[in-house]
Design a protein that fits this description.
CATH superfamily: Peptidoglycan recognition protein-like
Structural class: alpha/beta
CATH topology: Lysozyme-like
Radius of gyration: 17 Å
CATH architecture: 3-Layer(aba) Sandwich
Strand content: 5-15%
CATH class: Alpha Beta
Helix content: 25-40%
Order of helices and strands: HHEHEEHEEHEEHHEH
Strand order of the largest sheet: 1-5-4-7-3-8
């Protein structure tokens, strides 16, 4: 990788939408397929497969106990000093994350791309913060259940628009203009930051509150990393043979880029 080229690998942008529903990083691998791919690739940071399956909090009593009662506590909603224009981002400690198996690798440079994913989970109508925390624990449980170090992506946004830190250390790194190596895009984890959007968007669009939070989060990340949103914001399918971030959602990313650019100009 050329560290001086912020926006490389344009040759990987697909000319047609891929049809495969198996998602490598930030999606669902069902049943034996997940185990087979995980066994083939191994647990290394560069080749882990992110698996946001339809997991529940069952067996994650530690995370449940650690998490605050989000819908009953106003303290967790206070504005944090996370940098200019930063949205409210709930840290891993707030949503009750488990201790990672391995310490995250932090690079002292910015990413080249911000990758948008969908979780390929149900389009729930529970928009509460509690559901957002439940989602974050479920994803971490699914990823670590495969023997991976921690949550694969850096940030997660629920259908209610609640933003959570994903992989531990991602928020602190972004505040300093650095990046944690995640496991959300096969072969491109060393220069990408990943955002999971709760839901499945092959035929419908994310709720407006999710889209608004995505715009705010990416605008902040672009400021922190000095990225051009017109080049940096890409769908997962740019890199891998996947339907992520959704056949309906992915074609609208040009509009997302314009919204983020407008947010940056108005800041």
């Amino acid at each position: 990788m050329n560290p001086n080229a912020k926006h490389r690998r344009t040759d990987l942008w697909p000319t047609e939408m891929p049809r495969r529903s198996v998602l490598l990083g930030g999606g669902v691998l069902l049943g034996s397929a997940a185990l087979g791919v995980a066994a083939a690739l191994g647990p290394s940071a560069e080749h882990e497969v992110a698996n946001a399956a339809n997991a529940t909090d069952a067996g994650d009593a530690t995370g449940m106990a650690q998490a605050a009662r989000p819908d009953e506590s106003r303290s967790s909603r206070k504005t944090r000093k996370q940098g200019k224009g930063a949205p409210l981002i709930h840290s891993t400690s707030e949503w009750g994350a488990r201790t990672p198996y391995r310490r995250a690798t932090v690079l002292s440079r910015a990413p080249e791309y911000i990758v948008v994913h969908h979780t390929c989970t149900p389009n729930v109508t529970d928009y509460s913060l509690r559901q957002g925390f439940r989602l974050a624990r479920s994803i971490q449980g699914a990823h670590m259940g495969q023997g991976w170090g921690d949550t694969g992506q850096h940030f997660t946004i629920s259908r209610g628009g609640h933003i959570m830190e994903g992989r531990k250390g991602s928020l602190a790194a972004a505040r300093r203009g650095r990046m944690v190596i995640g496991t959300h895009v096969a072969g491109a984890n060393g220069y990408t930051v990943g955002i999971e959007c709760e839901g499945t968007y092959n035929s419908v669009m994310p709720p407006r509150r999710l889209q608004d939070s995505l715009t705010e989060l990416i605008a902040w990340l672009c400021r922190q990393y000095d990225l051009d949103p017109m080049k940096a914001i890409v769908p997962h399918m740019k890199f891998n043979d996947t339907d992520c971030c959704g056949y309906a959602f992915a074609p609208t990313l040009p509009r997302l880029r314009k919204r983020v650019a407008a947010a940056l100009r108005s800041a």
